[in-house]
What we know:
Number of domains of chain A: 2
CATH superfamily of the largest domain in chain A: 2-enoyl-CoA Hydratase, Chain A, domain 1
Number of domains of chain B: 2
Helix content of chain A: 40-55%
CATH superfamily of the largest domain in chain B: 2-enoyl-CoA Hydratase, Chain A, domain 1
CATH class of the largest domain in chain B: Alpha Beta
Strand order of the largest sheet of chain B: 3-4-5-6-7-8-9
Order of helices and strands of chain B: HHEEHHEHEEHEHEHEHHEH
CATH topology of the largest domain in chain A: 2-enoyl-CoA Hydratase, Chain A, domain 1
Largest sheet of chain A: 8 strands, mixed
Largest sheet of chain B: 7 strands, mixed
Radius of gyration of chain B: 19 Å
Number of strands of chain B: 9
Distance between the termini of chain A: 50 Å
Oligomer: heterodimer
CATH architecture of the largest domain in chain A: Alpha-Beta Complex
Largest interface: A-B, 56 and 65 residues
Radius of gyration of chain A: 21 Å
Helix content of chain B: 25-40%
CATH class of the largest domain in chain A: Alpha Beta
Distance between the termini of chain B: 64 Å
Number of helices of chain A: 14
Shape of chain A: globular
Order of helices and strands of chain A: HHHHEEEHHEHHEHEEHHHEHH
Strand content of chain A: 5-15%
CATH architecture of the largest domain in chain B: Alpha-Beta Complex
Structural class of chain A: alpha/beta
Amino acid sequence: xxxxxxxxxxxxxxxxxFERPIRELESQLAELEELSKRTNLDISEExxxxxxxxxxxxxxxxxxxxxxxxVNVARHQDRPTxxxxxxxxxxxxxxxxxxxxxxxxxAIVCSLARIGEQRFLVLGNRKGRTxxxxxxYNFGCAHPEGYRKALRKMKLAEKLGLPIVSLINxxxxxxxxxxxxxxxxxxxxxxxxxxxxxxxxxxxxxxGEGGSGGALGIGIGDRVLMLEYSYYSVISPEGCAAILWxxxxxxxxxxxxxxxxxxDLRELKLIDGVIPxxxxxxxxxxxxxxxxxxxxxxxxxxxxxxxxxxELLALRRRKYRRAGEIPGRFPVLD
Amino acid sequence: xxxxEDIPKVEDDALDxxxxxxxxxxxxxxxxxxxxxRSRQRWKKREVPEGLWLKCESCGQMIYRKELxxxxxxxxxxxxxFTLPGRDRVTMVLDEGSFVEHxxxxxxxDRLHFTDQIPYSEKVKKTEKRTGQxxxxxxGTGKIEGRPIVLAVLDFTFMGGSMGxxxxxxxxxxxxxARQRREPLIIFTSSGGARMHEGMLSLMQMAKTSxxxxxxxxxxxxxxxxxxxxxxxGVTASFASVCDITLAEPGALIGFAGPRVxxxxxxxxxxxxxxxxxxxxxxxxxxxxxxxxNLRATLARLVDFGQxxxxxx
Lengths: 334, 313
């Protein structure tokens, strides 16, 4: 996200094919603007006409995305990453490394951060922007050390009275030999359990991919929000199609069936709110997405910090104990 | 022919059982996948093939059926611990006649209207009919050698022990009961993971069960989890791994990602014994391995060590 990138026609994944007319208009617009810069021709009318058409095209394409198209937007390579939010939406940040037991997992970032006068701990799944970064961050797939590092830093935040902001963007926890040997399941389970007892506000925002248990391992919070075109799912659509349909071609159907979009999850009352994205998605206008993120974090933390801690923890437990429940369906033992 | 039937043939709704959870991944293919297939033990109406003799799915030995049953479904030749259906587990663990089942009437709802090859609601109906149970978790109160406990048993015969809303709720209710009654909570797991057909509602059960355990812990409660073959995915990554004591049965497959998922990701063969209980013990991931024959006595001893639970210090 270092520079606004030109449309890359050949690298479009099939799930982003709906953007083709948008991309065509965008490149026409870019050519016209360049032409007007190079020459003295007055083509402002053509330019503004094209702008209007582009805005209309974006609005109509994005008004009607399928769940699978949303998944593709959530994975878009130009979408702001967690590093972008930390480096460009906050006023200050200082990274804290290491689980202090086994190693440093770069797939999860933990930083002390500040917006205005509001100081907090930010956690996030780091995916990387370049190939080199992506490899070094293991494509956002954390090992047990990442979860243990996050827990260690959360306990520090608790001690210092800093609220916690967790930015989720992972395809899932890493399924590897070393990860299993060192207790991937236990690391995630311990984080989930511990986050119910951390005595400081926790704000969770899914900014891209919410990949199952790997996301939940840093995803328990007093408020859970999702960016408009992010997704959150118990399994990837690809994995679900392979298991239940035994057919990779059915991935878009699996995406629909899983009800993994922000609006669907809001309706199921599994998340607390949706943060709007700029027209055409965060990848089309990263600056606007970063500004919105900054406002949302400041607003939510201010609200959460007004709640007395004992009440906050009781509310947090009740929220998950009754997550998405149809009222009265289950007995209550209290 | 029934006497020496091989591994039961994969039939349609048996397949549904093995694939209901997200953790194990796609079904194995080809002859090299026997090791893994063993962990996906499916149970049909005839839970064990009829007849006087049957073949151990692990070592191939012909076993006299009565002997197998007497040994608690453990192969006398190779010590392979067959996956036990939930009801049999309850009978095996508790004192005779002591079990009082709770919340047996809670059944699954198809809240997402999820349809893959058949609608989820139909799958549930079929499974209810076949098992005579409403869901994959059996819970209640009972005694082990006279000691009162709260018991929760995941039943692999019901959609692969996968965790949806009801399973998560019943695990949480069991934790609540343990807290109210000031009794130890003992959980047995065997599960393919979170139930995909309930989407994010099933993922949230990882959080729900943990919230209930956090509250139990705060009250000083005592919990033991016994991991049995197989336990994977969202069950391993939540309540199954954070009880006070974690035991496992010999040879049980236990992991976050199933072996198929890992092998596909890494594009390599997995080392022998990978993700088996013995492997986890060696890697420091579980407290102990307990043979089925010793389970009742071991649990009774551990419960005695937990007498100081629920006492404020």
